[in-house]
Amino acid sequence: MTRFFSALFVCLLAAPAQERFPKPNPSQAFHELKVLDERGQAVRTPQEDWDRARRILKEDSSWSTWLTARRAETDEWMANRRDRVEWVAGWWHDFVNDKDGAFLTWTP
Prior knowledge:
By secondary structure, the chain is mostly helical. The chain has a domain at 48-108. Helices cover 39% and strands 0% of the residues. It is built from 3 helices and no strands. It has helices spanning 2-14, 50-59, 61-79. Helix 2 packs across helix 3. The longest helix is centred in the middle third of the chain and has 19 residues, at 61-79. The two termini are 45 Å apart.
């Protein structure tokens, strides 16, 4: 078993050094598969339409029921907090700088 780990260690040392984040422009990765806006940008700006949302809630009882359930669920969660602020959450790649691949320092 020791020979195996020794050989593995030698192979890892002999492997060529590789750039940790080799993408020069990661925001353009898979650009052809993304949905583009009118400016050709892959990241779309969300647009809020509160008047339409209020109208839909008044006209469609299923949306009203859905909102009531979500509101009750959120109120219950807020009353009984279960999360721990010391735990950093999210996908690991959300904490990476797009330009150089360095990890970003997370602060609450």
